[in-house]
Amino acid sequence: MADGASLELLERPAAGLTATETSLRTSVPASYDKRLMVFAGRGSQELGHKIAGKLGIELGQVELTTFSNGEVYCRYLESIRGADVFIVQSTHAPVNRNLMELLLMIDAAKGASAHRIIAVTPWFGYSRQDKKSLPREPISARLVARMIESAGADRVLTMHLHAGQVQGFFQIPVDHLIARPMLTQHFLDKVVKEEFVAVSADAGRAKLAEKFAGELGVRPAFVTKNRPEHNVAEAGYVVGDVVGKAAILVDDMIDTAGTLIEAARVIRESGATRVFAAATHGVFSGPAFERLAGPEIEEVVVTDTIPLSPGAPDKIKLLSVADVLARAIRSIFTDDSVSELFAGENQLF
Question: By C-alpha distance, which of 36, 50, 346, 289 is closest to 302?
C-alpha cells in the first residue's frame, strides 16, 4: 500500500476500543431502515391478508395470471428493492399451478433485488413423497426443495411437515412451526362428560398422539393400519384404552379421510362413546367431504394452512394459524429465535 497514512491506520492497534467503536471502524453504517413486505400467491390470499393484518401492514400487490395455454405470469406491482420479502403460498390443489406460482414469485423477487426472500409454505406440497417405497420412484419432496432453493429463496417457513427428514432436503434454513398448541387448547376448552383419549390413526403417528395426549393430560392410544395402495387404508385394532371415553383422532393432515373414517369405526367398535378428529392440514380431496358427512366423527378441527373448499360439512371447524405465522415472520425479520415461540417444542419428530 503506497499511502503511508492508510498503512499507519491499518497497523494501529485496536486495543482499548469498545465493540461499538470497532464496529464503526470496520463497517459502513446503513442510512435506511429494514423493510418487511408480505405477498401471497393465489393459493393463500386469505391467509396472506390475515398475516399482514397481524403485522399491522397491508398485503403487497402482485399480479398473478394464467395464460390460455396454462402458463403462469407474475409481476410485483411495487418496489421490493432491499426489502425482506415473505411469500405466502401453500402448494395445495391445484398443486402444480400453486407450486409454479411460488417459484416464479421467488425468482421475480430475486431479480427485483429483494434483500432476503422467505418462502412461507404452511402446507408443503409433495411432502408425503419423502422416500422411495418402490423401485424407480422419485423422491419428490427433495426435488421440490431443490426447486425452491434454485429459484432463489433464502429461507423457508413451513408448518407441520409430514416427515422430519424433509428439512434435511434443504441447504437453506428451514423454520418449522406446529399448530398442536391451538388444537389442544380447542379441546381443553370443550366440555364433555367423558374423559378424552388422544388416538393416532396409525402407528406411524403414535408419537404425535403421545404429545397431544400429554398436553391434554390424558393417555394416548393408536390404531393399527394397513395401506394396500395409495389413498387406500384398512384399519385393524386399537392399542390402548378407549372404552367409555371421547376419542380425539390426531394426524398431521386429512386427505381423502379414508384412514380417519376407518379408524373412527374401529374406535367406536372398541367402546369409545364419541369420536372427534384434529389435524393441522385439511387437504380434503376426492370423497373426503362425503365421507366426513357421515355419523362416525362428531367434529373435525383443522387449521387454515389450506383454505376450506365450498361444500364442506358444518362439522369442520377451522382455526387460523395467521397469528403463529405472523409472530414467526416478525422473529425472522428481527433475527430473533423462532423456536422460542414454542419454548423449543416446535419439533414433532
Answer: 289
Q: How far apart are CA 42 and CA 64, in angstroms?
A: 7
Active site residue 225: yes
Q: Do 51 and 330 contact (CB within 8 A), yes or no?
A: no
Tell me which of 54, 211, 225, 245 is the catalytic residue: 225
Write the DSSP string, 117-158.
EEEEESS-TTTT--S-SSTT---HHHHHHHHHHHHT-SEEEE
In this structure, what is the dihedral angle of CA atoms 140, 145, 150, 154, given to the nearest 10 degrees?
Answer: 170
Q: What is the pLDDT of residues 299-338, one digit of tens each?
A: 999 999 999 999 999 999 999 999 999 999 999 999 999 9
Q: Is 210 exposed, middle or buried (0-12, 13-18, 19+ CB in 10 A)?
A: middle
Q: Which of 153, 95, 103 is nearest to 125 (CA)?
A: 95
How many residues are listed for the chain in this entry? 349
Kindly report the pTM of this predicted structure: 0.87
Q: What is the pLDDT of residues 101-149, one digit of tens each?
A: 999 999 999 999 999 999 999 999 999 999 998 999 999 999 999 999 9
